[in-house]
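Q&A FORM
Asked by: J.P.
Topic: structure of DUF4131 domain-containing protein

PROVIDED:
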Amino acid sequence: MGTAGAAGGPRRSRSSGPDGPAAGRGAGGIDHRRRSLARPAAAGVVGHGVRRCRGPGHRPGHDVTVRSTVERSGRAHRHTRRDRDHCECRDHRQRHRSRDPAGSGHPPGRIPGGRGDRRRRRTGPGRRRDRSESGRPVGRRGLGHRDRHRRCGVRGGGRERCHRQFRLGGSGWCADRPELRRRHRAGHPARGGTGDGRQHRRLAGAERAVHLDRAAPGDFRDRPGPVRAVGRAGRRRVTVGGTRIPSADPAPTDPDGDGARSASPGCADDDRPDPPDLRLVPIALTAWAGCLLVPPGGPPGPPAVIAAAGAAAVLLGLAVRRPRWRAGLLAALLGLLTGLLVAGLHSAQRAADPLRVAAADGGSASVAGTVDGYPRPVASRFTDPAANSAAGPTADPTAGPGSTSGAAGDGQRWAVTITAHAGRVSGVEWAELDSPVTVYGRGPTWATLLPGQAISVSGRLASPARADLPPTLTSRRDARPESAPPWWYQAAGAVRSTLRDHASALPPDPAGLVPGLVVGDTGGIDDRLDADARTAGLTHLLAVSGSHFALLCGLAVLLLGAAGPRVAALGGLAVVIALVVLVGPEPSVLRAAVMGLVTVVALLSGRRRTGVPALAGAVLLLLLVEPALARSAGFALSVLATGALVLVAPWWVAALHYRGVPRGWAQLLCIPVAAQLATLPVIVAISGSISLVGVLANVLVAPVVAPALLVGMAAALCGPWWPSAAQVLVAVAGWLLDWMATVAHTLARWPVAALPWPATPAGVTVLVMLLLGAVAALRRRRPRHLLLAALVGVLGVLLPVKVVGVGWPPPGWLLVACEVGQGDAMVLSTGDPGTAVVVDTGPDPVVMDACLDRLGVTTVAVLMLTHLHADHVAGLAGALDGRLVGPVLTGPGRDPAGTWHAIESAAHVTGSIVSTPPVGSTYRVGALTLTVLGPTGEFHGTESDPNNDSLVVRAEMDGRRMLFTGDIEPPAQQALLRSPEALRADVLKIPHHGSARTLDRFLRAVDADIAVIGVGLDNDYGHPSPKLLAALASAGTGTVLRTDLHGDAAVVVDPAGGGLGTRVRGPDGVITTVSVRE
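REPLIED BY: S.T.
REPLY: Here is the structure written out as tokens.
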């Protein structure tokens, strides 16, 4: 047998033999061994390529081929011998000689010392890299390579194998037959199909097969990512140079536990989405950052210049040190500089605007301009009785028109954005202007204005609350149209008005939702629904947003797809333009429209249609046109939500679908979750709370939104020409949207609907880090379990505290005196959740805002400022911030004048009406009735005229009376005692923080059971006076609530006996009961 082996029998060699190179391949059909550069010589000939063994017991069949391999170290080349230098021991040869059919004495498929007799390849992260993987060019070893295999104790030889490797089942057996290598269980499936080896006709000489779905190293000239696998069950196809090559290797399952698989058996296609094209993202983000660095009110200051210079230096440094990143970093630097330049030019132009300069001085203007958008009602549920003579002595703030049809008469106030082209500003004529201005007016003509219509207005200018907003102009006259709008806006106006008229026959909630969802007309949505939708995370469905454009444009492309891609793209473009005309140029609408246009252009040009380039292009284009959008919260919410739907949601859907969840259900769950998580930091920065029911609410209403939108759009289009069909369709849409209103109202009432979160930059930053950590942890199985356990633990602690421990505001509350220091701030319940009446705002806006947040107040139906002292009005900004505010009522005093102008300017920004109600005026808000009792006239020559001019109001709810007296002193008290029967009340807000200047006769006339004193701890005035406290005891007032001792103090209706009770919330948040009176 040795002779036969020496004579060139069928010994299986890695470099020769009848099977060629494939005979020596390892598992999977991949040649893991290095090709020999020398060919074997003829049997029995000693020469190049053959080495004769000189060990004891040598036989001719033991001669093996010399494998001389070139290894490069710099420029030096050396040849090393890789083969055996002696024969194996005699007992080993006798034991295994019979197993070699060629008589060589070695197991089949083995050459002792060759590359084929390596140990079984490890699969962990620390294993040696195979030749089939990228990382170094073929035929080279890294410098400093050392053989990791143990020698058998023989010096001066090549790599040796210990004989125990050739035991039954050892690693030296059957390298080309993996199914026989291990005795206990099967290893990986046998491979070896065509397409994996170097001999494939589609693989060049320098290419080699790769391991699918294995992350590639980040070295230069390596592939950028793992190779994907697609194909039918049991087959795998490798993409090489754009060509798919089949392989017989069945696809693995999900080894990493991250939900991303190659292809599952029996799956016809790959579930994983295509990788996004992120090339435009850096330039869009840096352009956004550049716009944010420029202040809106003037040129960039030193902080902005330093920040921009630092960012530019970092980008340039990275571009120099990282050649592969150079193009992307230079593009990002270009975006940063472009954003700085464009925003700086717009800021300089805005600072030089004549209307803005005149508004800073409180001047007047008479301008001619063009209407830019549809009129929107301002405080339409709150009617000012002083301005509406038709209301008579009693006016209902909740009885507004509820729509934008103009049927409200002169009492409805409207806001219209126009672009002024010429006019007279502060006595100076301007022939050429291009200044945006927001006009507030009252009258029937304002509701009929349409975009593109030329009008002339005049009034008083005021500066906006933020420098990036246009100045405001309050007109005391009706609008004066000077030309008709274009025909397309006339058609859009007819569609909007007919849809609004048909929806008015529906119940209140659907009547406002149908126009709002279809055409963006939100004038009919009442405050209660708006507040509940905000709590439930459904505000994006109350008006037109990007999802509406996506749905309608996608439907148009789908219906026109049979006519070809160009016709479908043109149809989608027509839908985008029509929606912009119908809805109006709102920030979210503009973003969605531009994104749709970018997608259509990509379709027409034949480029790949992906959402990320379209979104990045839309952001970049909108910021170049209007850099002020960089500071718009609505714009940020739109971009973040769309980015989450494009980048995150497809991968989560694929992961759930891989785990057996139907694709439709996976989309229904993943889309709202991705959108909610992406927009959560911005929402927290705005509202200061985290909605815990947002995902559930969106999942519940998702099945009805798309049908309601399509049916409502059909009703809008049919309205002007087929009214009967439009009425039927509107009824169907209203029936669907009534479910959305029910979900919003129900979930908003849950005690765990929202959790407070600090809206400070530090709080938002912590929230972002937590979200990023949670998303990263979800990609691995073990951290995923830990994250779930931590979430359950946190909710297990917070939810019981929210449900049981907090209890604020207490059930049945009528009045809450906020602890604001030395000042007054009273909040009255109206019976409607989220709606309240505020009497004075205290000295600190932050404290006032926090008190209203604790009470869950999102709508201030009526805001009363008794007089203009700072301890009563300085916290006005806290009451206005982020809330709907109705009319602002003040006393007749205007001293100090600066405070009065500040109140007017702040009210104009929110669209509120500032007025002094006459004595006897009555306001009804929900279950609460307000009656103005004083002052009967302005006081002159008293010790404190502003205090005596305080507004005195009596509030009544469920038969309980409360009297609010401001800081009135004896002259005003004596004037009120002329009608003592009107003063009778159950609760009295003590005048002037409990000073001694309160008449005993006044306290006895009121005869209150509970007295409330707004006073600061250890104040310098000695309030409350001991004399006053003794007078209260003499008058029979049994309970005295003091904010300095009790904190936030509430008067409640006791649920047991129906009497009045009190609850107080101390500084530590502990709620206690002071007393209960039957």
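FOLLOW-UP: Residues 281-351 form one domain.
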